[in-house]
Amino acid sequence: MDQSKPLKVRLTFSVILVGISLLFAAVVTDHWAVLSPSLEENTTTCEAAHFGLWRLCTKRIFLHEPGSKEKSCHHTPMGHQGCSNVHYVIFGGFFPLAEYSISAAAIAIFSVGFAIMGTICVLLSFRKKRDYLLKPASMFYTFAGLCIIISVEVMRQSVKRMIDSKDTAWIEYSYSWSFACACAAFVLLFVCGIALLLIALPRFPQNPWETCMDAEPDH
After folding, report:
1. Residues forming a β-bridge with 47
2. Fewer CB near the last or first residue (10 Å), C or N of the chain?
3. Structure pTM?
4. What percent of the chain has pLDDT over 90?
5. How far apart are the C-alpha atoms of 210 and 28, rounded to whole Å?
């Protein structure tokens, strides 16, 4: 057995743990996107919003200077502000966003489940010296990465539909740090899942007279 294999597995697993942390951060936080409306002339307030997989939070922002030349309240100075949470997934509010967000949240749950199952397999392979568990673990991590990037794309479509909808006042959007966490989690989980699979494969022959049967089998 390759003596460096345990070290490679542990290093890869360490990076995977970072990806899982980013995955959990993306799933449980509400800063996937920030929405802002246009400013009417002589207006004194505007309502911005940020949302995640589970809720949408609106902020009523009081402007210092009515009739500002700014076209959106996204970057305007904030006065007194309040935030009201809207659990649109449960109560069906903001329906242009709801049907997409339900799908994105469900897919994200699958991603978390795959990540947990992969971690269980890796931990069992450490404890019992069962290297064959690394193969299903690598597949679970790869599936987790694919699921979260699908969830990201669904949320992107959700934001576009929200902006295009005539039922909402929001006309501009920007992606926030929760969205970045989800994208980073995809890269780490997908790439490290493939890397873990390559590490778990039997050693290939290094000389012409060797065969794959000469490699030491997994414990």
Report:
1. 60
2. C
3. 0.76
4. 33
5. 51
